[in-house]
Design a protein that fits this description.
The protein is an all-alpha fold. It has helices spanning 13-32, 37-44, 49-55, 63-72, 89-100, 118-123.
Length: 137
Protein backbone atom coordinates (compact mmCIF):
# COMPACT_ATOMS: atom_id res chain seq x y z
CA UNK A 1 0.00 0.00 0.00
CA UNK A 2 1.34 3.42 -0.98
CA UNK A 3 1.44 5.84 1.91
CA UNK A 4 0.29 9.35 1.03
CA UNK A 5 2.54 12.19 2.15
CA UNK A 6 0.97 14.46 4.76
CA UNK A 7 2.87 17.43 3.33
CA UNK A 8 0.67 17.46 0.23
CA UNK A 9 -2.59 17.18 2.18
CA UNK A 10 -2.43 20.56 3.90
CA UNK A 11 -0.56 22.93 1.61
CA UNK A 12 -0.81 26.61 2.43
CA UNK A 13 -2.35 28.47 -0.50
CA UNK A 14 0.86 30.43 -1.06
CA UNK A 15 2.86 27.21 -1.43
CA UNK A 16 0.37 25.66 -3.85
CA UNK A 17 0.31 28.87 -5.90
CA UNK A 18 4.11 29.06 -6.02
CA UNK A 19 4.45 25.44 -7.15
CA UNK A 20 1.81 25.99 -9.80
CA UNK A 21 3.49 29.18 -11.06
CA UNK A 22 6.91 27.49 -11.13
CA UNK A 23 5.43 24.63 -13.13
CA UNK A 24 3.90 27.05 -15.64
CA UNK A 25 7.21 28.92 -15.93
CA UNK A 26 9.08 25.67 -16.58
CA UNK A 27 6.52 24.64 -19.19
CA UNK A 28 6.88 27.99 -20.98
CA UNK A 29 10.68 27.66 -20.96
CA UNK A 30 10.47 24.09 -22.32
CA UNK A 31 8.09 25.08 -25.10
CA UNK A 32 10.21 28.08 -26.10
CA UNK A 33 13.09 25.66 -26.55
CA UNK A 34 10.82 23.42 -28.62
CA UNK A 35 11.49 20.47 -26.33
CA UNK A 36 8.96 17.71 -25.96
CA UNK A 37 8.40 16.47 -22.43
CA UNK A 38 9.85 13.11 -23.51
CA UNK A 39 13.04 14.82 -24.75
CA UNK A 40 13.46 16.65 -21.46
CA UNK A 41 12.93 13.44 -19.48
CA UNK A 42 15.39 11.57 -21.69
CA UNK A 43 18.12 14.19 -21.18
CA UNK A 44 17.77 13.78 -17.43
CA UNK A 45 17.24 10.03 -17.45
CA UNK A 46 13.84 10.02 -15.75
CA UNK A 47 10.29 8.98 -16.53
CA UNK A 48 8.30 11.38 -18.73
CA UNK A 49 5.82 11.60 -15.86
CA UNK A 50 8.25 13.57 -13.66
CA UNK A 51 8.43 16.64 -15.94
CA UNK A 52 4.63 16.44 -16.28
CA UNK A 53 4.29 16.42 -12.48
CA UNK A 54 6.68 19.38 -12.24
CA UNK A 55 4.75 21.37 -14.83
CA UNK A 56 1.54 20.61 -12.95
CA UNK A 57 3.06 21.79 -9.65
CA UNK A 58 2.61 18.42 -7.96
CA UNK A 59 3.76 18.97 -4.36
CA UNK A 60 5.20 15.50 -3.82
CA UNK A 61 7.69 15.76 -6.69
CA UNK A 62 11.24 15.81 -5.35
CA UNK A 63 13.09 19.11 -5.53
CA UNK A 64 15.94 17.38 -7.35
CA UNK A 65 13.55 16.92 -10.30
CA UNK A 66 12.91 20.66 -10.42
CA UNK A 67 16.63 21.42 -10.19
CA UNK A 68 17.50 18.93 -12.95
CA UNK A 69 14.85 20.40 -15.25
CA UNK A 70 16.07 23.94 -14.58
CA UNK A 71 19.62 22.81 -15.34
CA UNK A 72 18.62 21.22 -18.66
CA UNK A 73 16.73 24.39 -19.58
CA UNK A 74 19.73 26.58 -18.70
CA UNK A 75 17.88 28.28 -15.85
CA UNK A 76 19.74 26.84 -12.87
CA UNK A 77 21.55 30.11 -12.08
CA UNK A 78 18.21 31.61 -11.06
CA UNK A 79 18.07 29.17 -8.13
CA UNK A 80 21.00 30.95 -6.47
CA UNK A 81 18.65 33.73 -5.32
CA UNK A 82 16.32 31.30 -3.55
CA UNK A 83 16.72 31.67 0.23
CA UNK A 84 19.79 33.88 -0.27
CA UNK A 85 20.80 34.98 3.26
CA UNK A 86 21.74 38.42 1.94
CA UNK A 87 18.13 38.94 0.80
CA UNK A 88 16.52 37.61 4.01
CA UNK A 89 15.39 40.88 5.59
CA UNK A 90 13.30 39.27 8.33
CA UNK A 91 16.16 36.94 9.27
CA UNK A 92 18.57 39.86 9.46
CA UNK A 93 16.20 41.77 11.77
CA UNK A 94 15.79 38.74 14.04
CA UNK A 95 19.53 38.15 14.07
CA UNK A 96 20.16 41.78 15.05
CA UNK A 97 17.53 41.61 17.78
CA UNK A 98 19.04 38.42 19.18
CA UNK A 99 22.56 39.81 19.16
CA UNK A 100 21.40 42.92 21.06
CA UNK A 101 19.61 40.91 23.75
CA UNK A 102 21.38 39.99 26.98
CA UNK A 103 22.23 36.46 28.11
CA UNK A 104 19.14 34.42 28.81
CA UNK A 105 16.86 37.09 27.36
CA UNK A 106 14.14 35.67 25.14
CA UNK A 107 14.13 37.55 21.86
CA UNK A 108 12.01 35.22 19.77
CA UNK A 109 8.90 37.38 20.04
CA UNK A 110 10.69 40.71 19.46
CA UNK A 111 9.80 41.24 15.82
CA UNK A 112 7.31 39.92 13.26
CA UNK A 113 7.75 43.08 11.24
CA UNK A 114 4.69 45.28 10.68
CA UNK A 115 2.46 42.53 9.30
CA UNK A 116 2.11 38.75 9.58
CA UNK A 117 4.59 36.65 7.62
CA UNK A 118 3.54 36.06 4.01
CA UNK A 119 2.70 32.38 4.60
CA UNK A 120 0.05 33.36 7.15
CA UNK A 121 -1.42 36.31 5.28
CA UNK A 122 -1.68 34.60 1.92
CA UNK A 123 -2.74 31.17 3.11
CA UNK A 124 -5.74 32.36 5.05
CA UNK A 125 -4.86 29.76 7.67
CA UNK A 126 -4.61 31.87 10.79
CA UNK A 127 -5.28 28.83 12.95
CA UNK A 128 -1.95 27.26 12.00
CA UNK A 129 0.69 26.99 14.71
CA UNK A 130 3.67 29.31 14.57
CA UNK A 131 6.48 27.44 12.72
CA UNK A 132 9.00 28.61 15.31
CA UNK A 133 7.23 28.23 18.66
CA UNK A 134 4.37 25.89 17.77
CA UNK A 135 1.90 28.25 19.53
CA UNK A 136 -1.50 29.28 18.23
CA UNK A 137 -3.10 26.21 16.66
Amino acid sequence: MVRKSRISESLPAAVAHTLSQLGRNIRTARLRRKLRMEDLAERIGISRFVPADIENGKPTTAIVGYVWVLWVLGLLDQMKAVADPDRDQEGKILERAQSQGGPGQRTLDVVWLSKPPEWVASSGRFGMPCPITGDGA
